[in-house]
Amino acid sequence: MNDSDDTRRLRHGERLHATVLFTDMKGFTAFSHDADPEEVDRLMTSVFGEFTRIVDRYGGSVEKYIGDAMVAVFGVPRVHEDDAVRAVAAAWEFRELVASDYQHLTFRTGIHSGLITTGKRGEHDVVTGHALAVASRLETTAEPGEILVSEEVYEVAREAFSFGEPREVRVRGREEVAIARIVEDRRGRAAQIEQPFVGREELLQELTRRYLQSTGGSAASVVLSAAPGMGAGEIARRFAAEIGAFPRFDGAVIIARPTPYSASPYSAMRYAIRRLLDLDDVSSEGEIRDAVAQTLVPAESQDAVVEFLCNGASEVNPGGLYPMVGEVLRHLTRSDTALFPGVFIIDDLDELSPEERHLLRFVVGSTESKRFYVATSRDLRNQTVDILPNASVLEVPPLTESETAQLIMELKGGTPDEEFVAEMHARTGGNPTFVRELLRYLEEHPGATELPVRIQTVILAGIQTLPEECRDALRRLSVMDHPFRPQDAERVCGDVATDDVLDRLLEQRCLRREGNRFVFADELTRQSVYDSLLHHNKRVLHAAAVESIADDDLPPVVRVRHLVRTGEERQAALTLQELRGRMANFDRRILEPIDAILAGSAVSDPNLVGELLYLRLAILFNTNAPNHETDSSIRRLLRIGLETRSSDLMGKAYAFLLGWHSRNGALAAARRAGYEALRHYERSGAEARTDSVRTFLAIACIRQGHTDEADRLLAALANPSQRYGAMGERALQRYDYPAAYDHTLQSLEATRGDPPQIAAFARAVEYCRLVRILIACRSWRTILAIQPEIGGVTGPWYGYHSAVYSGLAMAAHHLGMPDEAVAHLERAAYYSRQARDHLFWYYGPVSLAMARVEMGQIDAALAELRQLFMDLAVEPYEDALLTTLELTLRALEGRDEEGGRFYLAELDSLITSAAMSGDYDRMVAAWYRYRLGSDDGMGQGDRDSLREAHSLAVTILQCQSDDRFTADMRAGYPYRDILAEWDRAGRPSRD
User: Fold this and answer.
1) Which of 297, 418, 700, 789 has the fewest CB atoms lying closer than 10 Å?
2) 818-836 pLDDT, tens per residue?
3) Among residues 114, 119, 109, 61, which one has the least CA distance to residue 84?
4) Do 686 and 651 touch, CB atoms closer than 8 A?
5) Maximum CA pair distance of the chain?
6) Phi and psi for 210 in degrees, rounded to 5?
7) What is the pLDDT of residues 563-611, one digit of tens each?
8) In angstroms, rounded to a whole number, what is the distance separating the alpha carbons of residues 756 and 70?
9) Coil, strand, or helix at residue 603?
10) 828 phi and psi, to 5 degrees?
């Protein structure tokens, strides 16, 4: 990377979603042609001045004037949650002003929300982006006097304004068609959307309890302290509704809510009095006067009250205004004689103007009767808290994971998947608003990975209440998508990240601690801030992060991601070469940096590109990715191998093809690819790679019936743990349980000599096999005895984890430990869901179904097995499909004979055609044919297979009788039942 000052210095500016307002005078050319230039200048100065005043009041900024056109931006320099609403409100007010004071002028207006960048041109702040072009196009499409908004603006502003039917607008210079709507009217009161109330019941009860306690004492107040989106306002609203529904409640509920862009500094009190009079924001002066006249307000004060409600009385002397507001509230609330104290709710203390804080202090201090005050606040350092009497604080915490699941269930219906809940909870940090918005966004945009604009806006608006040094530190730290140390923060942020700044970010719930490290409170906050960085600034900050974490023990993929985002693709590629262990081969997070490197041109070394492609293919293969995701990579790897005549790259390509064809059931192609991989690896001297090839090749040979060939391949394995493990699997396939048991224990011992990541995977596989052996031998105590060792195996080997915990569940069930059995079964179910994106994913659901059948959960097992049968019917896993059918028959037996016969026919058909079927499968089919009385059409060959099955059952039982399988060993199902039934009948078949 270039070390010049320009490339290492952060640039001024951000990437933001903002709302652009474009308005243009209709007929200006003709007007200016006939009028005196001085008169034109005077008029335009006056109009532009009014426009600027309105835009400023609504929190926007005038971007530029272009002749008779004016451009304003809302969301720059300060982001608000309702910038689109502010823009429409400003356009509406400007149009009303023009119609009133400049009747000979007409403007047409276009408004659009979209991505813009801020920056500087010399000393001037500028805004650029396609959003300006869309707003301009909407303006030129609008009729004179119309305000035309895009669909993006409509979605946000439709609760505050009414709109016409959608129309199509073609954007100049692009093929895209925008949907636009005309603003028709301003709503008097925004619609209140009822949302599920989850995880806040205890807070509501506590608030009610404190209110009831205050009825016999002096005035009291509670401040609900919460981060944006946590629902403090909703708690206050529910509280008001609950108190108002009390029997004999005769107090008054006052709700004051500031309007930040109001022309009056007393917008909260105006809001409160209007609501008490049952007026809304668009009530006319006549309606206001009539409402005031019907109150107990003295006649001599009514004009002043009307003036206050209409215009805000910003110029009125506080000496006269304050007593008037207090008098109005006393007359409207009847609080002097009420049995219950009145309730005064101040929604969003932080937005009160300085003038209104003084007014509120006067109202609180001069109230003779008791009132119970409830306020919401994001920042407890706000001085407004001090004006409330006897204030106490209730923190509004994030939802717990179980509460997040409940919220998702109420929003979507049904029981949500645990993995989905965990991901949603981690991303949103338990923020209910974020959960709702993210769910809605994912429903509208399935598979989307980008962040919903609404969430980003809420987050950025919330953090703008922080001091500038805290905001700056947060922006810089957003590149750290992993836990970071204090020294990392100092390196990335420089002098900005002082201890005081970090403490403030913790206090404001932007960060949290994990041990001695910091991490963002939720991923959505980090991503929102990160997305607002200029791309140049991201590269600079990632470069600082690379230097900072050089001495840290974070996973190497963290450094790789920083390197890629810095632009150091070659160094990232070299680092990825160190991640070839099996742990990395299961980590889909690595795909992002790999794809970024392969898409660029910084890495030209074919061997390095080949390594990246092979790692990418291994991850896709191990995480059960669809074939279309792998096709281009395998073709590219083959092409590079052919062009460079590299045996190493050709060996990698054929090794992957071995696994790919095996997974897809193309066993002949897999066998050929396996021998080609061995040949190329031997030519290139890459002997270390041949063990995995021989293992997969042996499996393909076994499935094709080439068992002697498979045995020779397995005997040639150099790695002891792989060799013993393969021998254990082979013995298990022959139902030689003592040999399988011995070889599995030898493999587990041999893993001690493997590298840690490889050993972790191998031990997961071996413990899974060990549990399968012990289940077959019904050695339940032995399974529970190895539970501590099983618990020590970690890693993303979810199918294997599910299988072993299913075994533990069966063992606990048979040994009379129901609570432990249920706990193990729940954990097995969790891992089974996690396994869906991994190779051999079916280990989890097959084992789980076996446990459910053993534990008598037949209905649940049948539902899962039928779904599993459908999933496996399109996969080449004949062995798993046969097992699934066997388990289905077991679950159906004695409950649904007709269903049993149907599935038996499916099993017979598969046995005939499947490459993996053998004596065991024929024995199972024969046994169920016997039990279900389905021997119609049974020929001599079928009867012979029954006799062979009887002989096989005897052999298996002899294997199970090995003394090393503890004294509680019983014969596994169905062998003992087969022998007992047939021996009682004195024959091995029904004839």
Assistant:
1) 789
2) 999 999 999 999 888 877 7
3) 114
4) yes
5) 121
6) -65, -35
7) 999 988 888 888 887 766 555 677 777 888 888 888 888 888 888 888 8
8) 65
9) coil
10) -60, -40
